[in-house]
From TrEMBL:
Keywords: Aminoacyl-tRNA synthetase, ATP-binding, Cytoplasm, Ligase, Nucleotide-binding, Protein biosynthesis
Pfam families: HGTP_anticodon (PF03129), tRNA-synt_2b (PF00587)
Taxonomy of the source species: Bacteria, Pseudomonadati, Bacteroidota, Flavobacteriia, Flavobacteriales
Organism of derivation: Lutibacter aestuarii
GO molecular function, one term: glycine-tRNA ligase activity
Gene this protein is translated from: glyQS
Similarity-based family: Belongs to the class-II aminoacyl-tRNA synthetase family.
UniProt catalytic activity: tRNA(Gly) + glycine + ATP = glycyl-tRNA(Gly) + AMP + diphosphate
Enzyme Commission identifier(s): 6.1.1.14
Domain Aminoacyl-transfer RNA synthetases class-II family profile as annotated: residue spans: 177-418
InterPro entries to which the protein is assigned, alphabetical: aa-tRNA-synt_IIb, aa-tRNA-synth_II, aa-tRNA-synth_II/BPL/LPL, Anticodon-bd, Anticodon-bd_dom_sf, Gly-tRNA_synthase/POLG2, Gly_tRNA_ligase_bac, GlyRS-like_core
Function noted in UniProt: Catalyzes the attachment of glycine to tRNA(Gly).
Annotated compartments: Cytoplasm
Binding site for substrate: R101, E218, F265, E266, Q267, M268, E269, E372, T373, S374, I375, G376
Protein name: Glycine--tRNA ligase
Residues annotated for ATP binding in this entry: 250-252, 260-265, 332-333, 376-379
């Protein structure tokens, strides 16, 4: 655990030191769970968003984009169920006065059982060596099965109690499991209460005529209320999708873990409208397609897993998360939800407007079913950033800190470095920058010894360094150094663009899907 904490602390401090993420309003001691993206962070975030947009919108003839407003008519949230049901169960510890999400306390308890299973696996692996069959071990070892059954039973009971709004049982479960407050170590808990996560605000100048509004807690509703507008003006035929990226706001009870859980964050959502009865197939299809998108970034298949939901949201008939191995363990990165016709039907009811589609293939009119893919951009940022940050032991006994961002996402693609600040080398380096900047974000750096500049670019995540030296004056060649392998090659200046393009081109990465 200490190791995980250390690794996570490194991620947070590295993000600040290299201009990726700052705390919001830092000069006023910050604002809890709100963050700003700095010069490098804003580029990484944009590249992730583009990578998603290209894969979802540009590569699908039947998916189009939308950018709906953050403010929506307040009845939207009545119809969507958010006013009545967008709650988290909270519990306070009377000794530490700390507030927790009751479901998270229980999930963390189950997480510890999972960790015990992993320990058993490691132990057995050592004992059996090459003959070890993990699958078989997991399926037959009595201790593992015991932990697994216990974990499943706990989650099932919690899911049912939350579903039935039986908050007393959620508290009873916490007491039976003897869960203690991580801070005070005490079991002195209050009752569990529901807490609505939406931020309210007002529209209008005078107090008596002002209208109560909410900051949207998800981008999806902007898509639902525009469903028919887009379908008609785009002459879309079912199945088709509408994609949107944008800010969402949630008054999270416990917002820790840096940009993993924020009060203001960005979502990338796609609502896919399908014929009723086909939602199961599309749900499975989108689960696989989205997983492939993640895998295309080469961050290790072992770092992803599906988690099927026990407790379904009020709108869903099936739901799964793609979980990622963050520095603090496997956690939700993206949700894939089969949302039925809940949202569209409900908007029909509340607005009195039909939100139906006439399907010429079967000669029927119906309210479409919806399969949604929903990923947090900030969470994806954290996944990419934390996975990329590595300490490497070098042959000469030193270590280097390197941010091995997938090159397609790196904020700066190349740094151009004149070996010395004289003899015309800076001028050539500047010319290279001027040429490359039409196609890529490039950096110019002439300060310090070249070795230190390499280290600086490694830590900032720049995939290529291009060094201009005295030979460049004679033969128009430069040294290109690869961040991940530290390999160096002599190449012509005229070849640079193609070499970099091959490595950072979205197409080459998405083709791996
Ligand atoms: P969680 O269980 O972690 O609260 P959720 O199941 O409520 O998440 P969804 O409503 O499914 O999340 O939202 C879709 C995606 O939006 C999540 O998979 C996550 O990546 C992202 N997300 C949700 N809440 C936050 C938040 N507070 N900060 C950052 N990202 C978030």
């Amino acid at each position: 655990m200490a190791n995980q904490d250390d690794q996570f602390k490194k991620v947070v401090s590295h993000a600040k030191e290299y201009g990726y993420v700052f705390q919001s309003s830092e000069i006023y001691d910050g604002l809890s769970a709100v963050y700003d993206y700095a010069q490098n962070g804003v580029e990484l975030k944009k590249n992730i968003r583009d990578y998603w947009w290209k894969a979802m919108v540009q590569m699908h003839e039947n998916i189009v984009g939308l950018d709906a407003a953050i403010f929506m008519h307040p009845t939207t949230w009545k119809a969507s169920g958010h006013i009545d049901a967008f709650n988290d169960p909270l519990i306070d510890n009377k000794d530490s006065k700390k507030r927790y999400r009751a479901d998270v306390l229980i999930e963390d308890y189950v997480g510890k059982l999972d960790a015990k299973i992993e320990k058993e696996v490691t132990k057995a692996q050592k004992r059996f060596g090459d003959a070890f069959d993990k699958e078989q071990f997991l399926a037959t070892n009595p201790r593992v099965l015991g932990y697994k059954e216990k974990g499943e039973a706990i989650l099932k009971r919690m899911g049912q109690s939350l579903e039935n709004e039986d908050l007393a049982d959620v508290k009873a479960l916490i007491e039976e499991l003897e869960i203690v407050c991580p801070l005070s170590g005490s079991k002195n808990w209050t009752d569990v209460k529901q807490f609505n996560l939406m931020f309210g605000t007002k529209l209008g100048a005078s107090a008596d005529t002002a209208m109560d509004l909410y900051l949207r807690p998800e981008t999806a509703q902007g898509i639902f209320v525009n469903f028919l507008n887009v379908q008609k003006t785009g002459r879309m035929k079912i199945p088709f999708g509408i994609a949107q990226t944008g800010k969402a706001f949630r008054n999270e009870i416990v917002a820790r873990q840096f940009i993993f859980r924020m009060r203001e964050f960005e979502q990338m959502e796609m609502q896919f409208f399908v014929r009723p009865g086909t939602q199961k197939e599309w749900y499975e299809e989108w689960k696989q397609t989205r997983l492939k998108w993640h895998l295309s970034l080469g961050m290790g298949a072992e770092n992803y897993r599906f988690h099927d939901h026990e407790k379904l949201a009020h709108y869903a008939d099936a739901a799964a998360d793609i979980e990622f191995k963050f520095p603090f363990g496997f956690k939700e990165l993206e949700g894939i939800h089969s949302r039925t016709d809940f949202d569209l039907s409900s908007h029909e009811k509340y607005s009195g407007k039909k939100l139906q589609y006439f399907d010429p293939e079967i000669n029927e009119r119906y309210v479409p079913y919806v399969v949604e893919t929903s990923i947090g951009l900030d969470r994806m940022f954290l996944a990419v950033f934390s996975n990329s940050l590595q300490e490497e032991a070098l042959e000469n006994g030193t270590t280097r800190t390197v941010l091995k961002l997938p090159a397609v996402l790196a904020p700066t693609k190349a740094a151009v470095l004149p070996l010395v600040k004289k003899d015309g080398l800076p001028e050539i380096a500047r010319q290279i920058v001027d040429e490359l900047k039409w196609d890529f974000n490039v950096d110019y750096d002439e300060k310090d010894a070249v070795g230190r500049r390499y280290r600086r670019q490694d830590a900032a995540g720049t995939p290529f360094c291009i060094t201009v030296d005295h030979d460049t004056l004679k033969d128009q060649s430069v040294t290109i150094r690869y961040r991940d392998t530290m390999e160096q090659q002599r190449v012509k200046i005229s070849e640079l663009k193609e070499i970099i393009k091959k490595e950072v081109d979205v197409k080459n990465w998405l083709m791996k899907m």
